[in-house]
User: What shape does this take?
Amino acid sequence: MSKRSRRLLALSAVGVGLWLIVYVGNDALRQLESDAPSESLGQTNNGSLVNGKRLPSSGPGFATYSRLGSLLGRTATHHRVRDAVLDAYAAVYAEHPEVTLLYGETGWPSGGSFRPHRTHQNGLSVDFMVPVLRAGEPDVLPTHVFTKWGYGIDFDDDGQNGDLAIDFEMLAEHLHQLDLATQAHGLTIEVVILAPSLQDELAATERGAEITQRLRFSRNPSWVRHDDHIHVDFRVVET
Assistant: This one.
C-alpha cells in the first residue's frame, strides 16, 4: 500500500470515528448520569441546575435538532422536564407515527449562562422546533449549519417558507400532550413563546382554539421572532 493510500485510509478512519462519537456520544454520556433528582435554582434568566439530565438524541417520533449540539451538552433539562417531554412525544407518536418532532436547545447540564439565549439557565426552558409540512405531507425542519440548525429559517405570517409550511394542527396537538404530561410530572407550563403573528393561525385549528385559551402565550414580540421554534418555560409545582 502506498504512503498516500495509507494516509487516506487513516483520515477515513478518523472521520468515521469522529462521526460515531457525534452520533452516539450524547446517549453514551446519558448512561453515566447520576440518578439523583435535579434541582433548579434561580430563574430561567439567572439561575443554575443541579444534576441536569440530557435528553435522548432520538426515539420513536422525535429527534434532536443536532447530535453535535446534544453531545456538547446543549440539550439538558430538569429530570421532570425530561420525563414530561418524552411522555408527550410518546403520546403524539401513538396517534401520529408518521410524524417526527424535533426539539431544539434547552440548556447546559449545570445550567447557567447559555449564549446566545437570554434564558435557558435553570433547566426549565425548552425550545421545540415547529413541525412542518412539505407539499401537504409531514416533514422535518431542516436543521444544519446552513439554516443555523433550524434557528435561521423565516416563516411568513401565514407560516409559509417556500414549499415548507408550519403544521399548526400538529403543533397544537404537541402542546396539548405536553400540557397533560407536565401535570403528571409535578410541573406546569409557565409560558409559551410563539411569534404573535402566528398565534391566530394556531388558534384557528381545532385543538389550537382550546390550547391558546388554556395555556399562557406571550403576546409581545421578543428579541428573537420564534417562528421556526416555540419556547416553553416550565415551573415545578410539586416538591
In short: The chain has a mean pLDDT of 93.
